[in-house]
Structure formats: C-alpha cells, structure tokens
Amino acid sequence: MTASATLTSRQHRFAARFTRNVAPGIHRLEHAYVNCYLVEDGTSLTIVDAAFPATLPLIKRAIRAIERSTADVRAIVLTHAHFDHLGFAHQAREEWGVPVWAHPLESHIAEHPYRYGHERARALYPIRHPASVPVLFRMARAGALHVPGITDLTFFEAGQVLPIPGGPRVIFTPGHTYGHSALHFEDRDALVSGDALVTFNPYTGESGPQIVSRAATADSTEALASLDLLAATDATLVLPGHGASWRTGVRSAVDLAREAGRS
After folding, report:
1. Which residues pair with 41 in a beta bridge?
2. What CATH number is associated with residue 241?
3. Torsion of Cα atoms, 20 then 205 then 84 then 107, to 10°
4. Residue 150 near residue 110, CB atoms below 8 Å
5. Total domains present in the chain
6. What's the domain range around 37?
7. In contact, 110 and 81? CB cutoff 8 Å
8. Residue 44 is inside which H or E element, if any?
C-alpha cells in the first residue's frame, strides 16, 4: 500500500511529494522533478541520491514521517554525481558523519559538479523544448546552481552487494555518466535505475521510459547499450531518478526506452 503526502520546509518555500512504500520498505521523495529514495532495513536507513541542497530539510521531514531519525541513516549512495543527484550529500555527510558511496569514475564530477561530459549543447533545449523551462526553473530554485562538490567518496564496484541497509547489488550502467550505476534490491524485486532509464526527461519535458537527453548524457550509444544490463535484472519495479515508478517490469521499460532512442 502506498500513501503520499506533500512535505514543505519552513526554512525554504519548497514543496515535495513523499510517497511511502513504492516498494516494500522503500520510500520516494520527489523534489523539483528529481527522485531520491529512503530504504529501510530494520531501524537503519540508506538514502539513494541527494537531489538538491534545498532537499535536505525535506528529507529530514520524510525521515521523521516514517518515525526514524537522522541518526538511523547509515549511508548515502549516488547512482551518479550530477548536480541534481549530489545536492545535499556534502552537507548531510558533515552533519551526520555517514559515508557517501559512488563508483570511482564519478570522483571528478562529484568534486566538480558542473564539469561533466555531454554530447549536445544545453542552451538550445529550452528553445526546442519549451516544456522544459518550468522544470529547469524549479530545479534552479531548489539550488541546482549552487551544489557543493564532495571528495573522499566511499567506492563500490560493479556487481558488489553493498554492506549497507537494504543490501543492494550494484549494476554498472555507464553512458549517462561514465561511472553511472543502478541499484538492484533483489529481495524487494525493485531496481533503482537512476538516470540510466527515466520516465520523465527534464530536458524535453516528455514522459515515458527513455534515456536522458544528450544535453546531460556523456555517451548515448553506451547509455542505450546499458539498458541490456538493466533488463537482465528482470526486476518488476523500476524506480527512476526522474519520473514515476514503472510497475510492469524493467524489460517493458527498456523496450520503450530503446524505441524512444536519443533526444
């Protein structure tokens, strides 16, 4: 059973949608078109992706909503280190003393969140896709232009089962970034796909399974190839970095993403 609520920070006039149990013990906080996930394992928590700086007070409220505290957080895991997923990671690590996990190939972006590979110029997308304008505006208001870098990441490897709450297996899915990795929560039949496969594209404003536009993708050919690795998990539920959950199997989502192709 899922239940959603709107969370609003008193310090910042930002609203977010918090949905409990999008998978068993996995809760989604969607803020300014970016998803991050709270994973429960007993009384301990893992946070997957860190959205924006202004998301921090909202994730704290989400933690309280499930009757936990920030002292229960054991790890933050980044599917990748783009600024809209790195967001509050630095501040949370300083406040809570938790490790921030990522693939080693994300180190450079994590330290320099605005220096990342992409195949197309970003400036033309709002002109060609006006539906993206309010999306990008919301992201900017949430702090997208002021994300601090982070060093001293804790590294994981492809295929590793992480020793953190939820015990996800790393599915190395390069393309969107060179170190992008999805997380397969096998016992919950759920795949956190990050931006390897999304159901909403911030750069076009279009919904449906797809890879992210070349404005933010380092190698779209590799990104399309990585869809095979997602499909191989056979997960029923896909939890993307942007957009709604996909509940009819990763293979159907991958087929639609291949059909959509590049943008």
Report:
1. 44
2. 3.60.15.10
3. 120
4. yes
5. 1
6. 3-260
7. yes
8. strand 44-48
- Map residue 74 onto helix, strand or coil: strand
SS3 call for 23: strand
DSSP helix/strand/coil, 201:
strand
One pLDDT digit (tens) per residue for the chain, 263 residues = 467 777 755 544 567 999 999 999 999 999 999 999 999 999 999 999 999 999 999 999 999 999 999 999 999 999 999 999 999 999 999 999 999 999 999 999 999 999 999 999 888 788 899 999 999 999 999 999 999 999 999 999 999 999 999 999 999 999 999 999 999 999 999 999 999 999 999 999 999 999 999 999 999 999 999 999 999 999 999 999 999 999 999 999 999 999 999 99
Rounded to the nearest 5°, which phi and psi values hold at 113? -65, -15
Asked if residue 82 lies in contact with residue 116, where contact means CB atoms within 8 angstroms, the answer is: yes
**Phi then psi dihedrals of residue 103, to 5 deg:** -75, 145
Q: What angle do CA 128, 207, 205 make, to 5 degrees?
A: 30
Q: Collect all residues with Cβ–Cβ distance below 8 Å to 259 and sequence separation of at least 6.
A: none
What are phi and psi for residue 115, nearest 5 degrees? -115, 95
- Please state, in angstroms and rounded to a whole number, the distance separating the CA atoms of residues 9 and 197: 29
Distance (Å, whole) CA 91 – CA 56: 8
Task: Please name which of 107, 88, 104, 109 lies closest in space to residue 217, comparing C-alpha atoms.
Answer: 109
The DSSP result for 78-99, as a single string, is -S---HHHHTTHHHHHHHH---
